[in-house]
Amino acid sequence: MTHLESPFTIDAWEPAEGDALAEPEGRGPATGRALVRKVYSGPLVGTSIAELLTTQGEGGAAYLAQERVVGELEGRAGSFVLQHGASGGDGQEMRQWAFVVAGSGTGDLAGLSGSGIIAHELLTLDYELP
């Protein structure tokens, strides 16, 4: 396993129109969708686009995302898909997770596997390449 920490910046956050998961009569926590564009630096250099589902309530919050990353990982060019999320609230520790979707690697990144977390504009990933 190789360990990496790659910072990123968020270039765009585009909320989707409407709230398909809204409770009738406005009850329940706010939910939403967004399209997010990022730029990675460090051992992973590239750009990404992610689709996020979010929930924000009085007692907690959560998100779920699928993100296609295109670029170079330690000099190897290609793309892959990350699935990641987090949830927590009411004094609970935030649970965060991320993994490379099996079979999603292309180019020099074909066969990439790994898991980690995305938090505070930093991807931390333990990965393997064939």
What is the element string, with H for helices and E for strands? EEEEEEEE
Uncertain segments are none
Helix content: under 10%
Number of domains: 1
Number of strands: 8
CATH hierarchy class name: Mainly Beta
| Full CATH superfamily name | SO1590-like
- Alpha carbon gyration radius: 16 Å
Strand arrangement in the largest pleated sheet: 1-2-3-4-5-6-7-8
| Structural class label | mainly beta
For the largest beta-sheet, the strand count, sense and barrel status come to: 8 strands, antiparallel, barrel
CATH architecture verdict: Beta Barrel
Taken as a percent bin, the fraction of beta residues is over 45%
CATH domain topology:
AOC barrel-like
N-end to C-end Cα span: 11 Å
Helical run tally: 0
State mean pLDDT (0 to 100 scale): 92
User: What would you call the shape?
Assistant: elongated
Structure overview:
InterPro entries: DUF3224, SO1590-like_sf. It holds the Pfam family DUF3224. Helix content is 0%, strand content 65%. The mean pLDDT is 92. It has one domain: SO1590-like (AOC barrel-like). The protein contains no helices and eight strands. With 130 residues, the protein is mostly beta strands. An eight-stranded antiparallel beta barrel has the order 1-2-3-4-5-6-7-8. It is elongated.
Summarize the structure.
The chain is mainly β.
Write the layout of secondary structure elements.
Elements: E1 2-15, E2 30-40, E3 44-56, E4 61-73, E5 76-88, E6 95-100, E7 113-119, E8 122-128
InterPro entries: DUF3224, SO1590-like_sf
